[in-house]
């Protein structure tokens, strides 16, 4: 659309209706309607003719006499109210009759003037009507533009509709803005007055960027995602666009608003792609100390990318051990160390969360082997990254989730540890003659060695090695007292392959060597036998 046709399309069409041709022509040519943004597109000499001309000429204002042969002005106004309710009517009457005025008001007539009409008065009336019509058109244009943009943003489509004419321009740019540190500032749920915060947010952005050759349309895609379409009526190069946005950065920083600016484009058909581009820039504020981000910053960051891999397996081992010990401080400390790594290595939120999910899967896998089946049913969904848009928010969420797991470990562990330990004791009693290790028992139970060691000590008050030594020593004492097996044979039977080590452990446990214990046991048995004999003789 060229400038002349665009200008013409904004003209208000007016029809002059009077049964006296001279009056029609006088009203048509006496006033400079064009200066008011009005085009007098024709005249009619009665109401019936007026109705035909209104339909043909797309009329918005009717200037009509009240008394005419045929259909008069009042009947015309009544028909217009039924058939063309948006047409504004200015009634002119040669009679100062209240009844006429009352009927005109009832019919929705915009104004009622008496003859002879004062030119200034008529001009002012029409001028006000033109202002109202333009205001209404602007409101309709804004709503139509918002609906189109909303469909683009939320559905990735424009409902098959062409962009409205009000969005035509020489260049476009999409801004995606959101409140920085949303969780820290507003919590998980927006406060009751958040709608006012959103209104202030939109008003601030529009006020900072508004200029005669730039129009803005804004819609919320999410409670913390505002999409704004910038429409320039003049051609601007990239530097001019960037300078315009850089100028508002201090204001956005003070307001705690982050902004991602898409590349410049000239075809509204590209809006879907540009919306995605602008949104994708926002996470880079964690890496760049800027509140307004352009595609060039992302490109520089990606060029320098190559973040080192996080050792999820090692972290999972440490976290599982800490959770099985139910040490909250250690768990929080390990998470803090993990996020220090993420910050230093410039992880983006999506990379960070996928790394955490890998870690969580390893934790669930290891805890499942310990009998913690309920961990499988929690935390299946990731966070809303529009809300959790800072390292601190994500770190807090990870700590919160691991604390929930700690509660499950505590609840399930108390119920299951008893039978696990009893099962372990039975297995140890059956295999104590071999060189049995704690890791072998844990593997047989299908739990982690650290978890087994923890619950075994909690249940028995002794470590695995201490408990096994005591069990073997009791068996050794029994064999020393009841058999004539050599000491090294007994050592081998109770699971000690090294004779000297067996003697050392036995002495530590009983305070004497195996031979001394056997001699003492034999003497004790002899005393018992003598006592029985003397009792029998009596």
From TrEMBL:
Q: Which InterPro entries match?
A: CheY-like_superfamily, Homeodomain-like_sf, HptR, HTH_AraC, HTH_AraC-typ_CS, Sig_transdc_resp-reg_receiver, Tscrpt_reg_AraC-type_HTH
Task: Report domain HTH araC/xylS-type positions.
Answer: 422-520
Residue intervals of the Response regulatory domain: 13-130
What is one Pfam family matched by this protein? Answer: Response_reg
Q: Which UniProt keywords apply?
A: Cytoplasm, DNA-binding, Phosphoprotein, Transcription, Transcription regulation, Two-component regulatory system
SMART domains cross-referenced by the UniProt entry: HTH_ARAC, REC
Q: Which residues carry this modification: 4-aspartylphosphate?
A: 65
- Provide the primary localization: cytoplasm
* One GO BP: phosphorelay signal transduction system
Give one GO molecular function term.
DNA-binding transcription factor activity
The entry's localization annotation reads: Cytoplasm
At the top level of its lineage, which domain of life is listed? Bacteria
**Its GO CC terms?**
cytoplasm
Which PANTHER family does the record associate with it?
A: HISTIDINE KINASE-RELATED (PTHR42713), TRANSCRIPTIONAL REGULATORY PROTEIN HPTR (PTHR42713:SF3)
UniProt protein name: Response regulator
């Amino acid at each position: 659309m060229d400038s002349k046709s665009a200008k013409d399309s904004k003209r208000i069409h007016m029809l002059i209706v009077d049964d006296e041709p001279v009056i029609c022509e006088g009203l048509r040519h006496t006033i400079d309607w064009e200066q008011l943004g009005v085009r007098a597109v024709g005249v009619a000499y009665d109401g019936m003719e007026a109705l035909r001309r209104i339909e043909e000429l797309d009329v918005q204002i009717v200037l009509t006499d009240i008394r005419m042969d045929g259909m008069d002005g009042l009947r015309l106004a009544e028909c217009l109210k039924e058939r063309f309710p948006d047409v504004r009517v200015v009634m002119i009457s040669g009679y100062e009759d209240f009844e006429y005025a009352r009927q005109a008001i009832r019919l929705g007539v915009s104004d009622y003037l008496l003859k002879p009409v004062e030119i200034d008065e008529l001009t002012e009336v029409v001028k006000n009507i033109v202002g109202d019509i333009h205001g209404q058109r602007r409101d309709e244009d804004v709503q139509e533009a918002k609906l189109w943009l909303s469909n683009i943003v939320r559905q990735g489509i424009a409902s098959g509709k062409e962009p409205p004419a009000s969005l035509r321009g020489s260049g476009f740019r999409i801004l995606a803005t959101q409140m920085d540190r949303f969780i820290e500032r507003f919590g998980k749920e927006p406060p009751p007055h958040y709608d006012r915060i959103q209104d202030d947010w939109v008003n601030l952005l529009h006020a900072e960027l508004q200029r005669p050759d730039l129009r803005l349309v804004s819609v919320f895609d999410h409670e913390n995602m505002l999409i704004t379409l910038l429409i320039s009526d003049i051609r601007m190069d990239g530097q001019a666009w960037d300078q315009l946005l850089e100028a508002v950065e201090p204001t956005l920083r003070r307001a705690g608003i982050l902004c991602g600016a898409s590349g410049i484009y000239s075809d509204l058909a590209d809006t879907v792609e540009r919306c995605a581009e602008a949104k994708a820039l926002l996470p880079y504020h964690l890496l760049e100390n800027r509140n307004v981000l352009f595609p060039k910053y992302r490109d520089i960051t990606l060029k320098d990318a190559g973040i080192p891999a996080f050792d999820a397996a090692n972290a999972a081992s440490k976290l599982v051990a800490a959770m099985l010990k139910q040490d909250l401080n250690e768990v929080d400390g390990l998470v803090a160390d993990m996020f220090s790594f993420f910050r230093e290595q410039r992880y983006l939120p999506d990379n960070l969360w996928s790394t955490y999910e890998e870690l969580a899967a390893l934790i669930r896998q290891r805890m499942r082997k310990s009998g913690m089946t309920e961990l499988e049913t929690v935390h299946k969904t990731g966070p809303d990254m529009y809300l959790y848009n800072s390292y601190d928010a994500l770190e807090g969420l990870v700590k919160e989730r691991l604390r929930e797991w700690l509660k499950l470990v505590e609840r399930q562990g108390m119920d299951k540890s008893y039978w696990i330990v009893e099962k372990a004791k039975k297995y140890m009693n059956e295999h104590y003659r071999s060189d049995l290790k704690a890791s072998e028992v844990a593997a047989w139970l299908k739990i982690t060695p650290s978890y087994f060691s923890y619950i075994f000590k909690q249940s028995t008050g002794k470590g695995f090695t201490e408990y096994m030594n005591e069990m073997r020593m009791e068996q050794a004492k029994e064999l020393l007292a009841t058999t004539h097996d050599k000491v090294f044979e007994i050592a081998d039977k109770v699971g000690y392959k090294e004779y000297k080590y067996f003697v050392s452990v036995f002495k530590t446990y009983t305070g004497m060597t195996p031979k001394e214990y056997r001699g003492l046991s034999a003497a004790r048995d002899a005393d018992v036998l003598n006592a029985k004999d003397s009792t029998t003789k009596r």
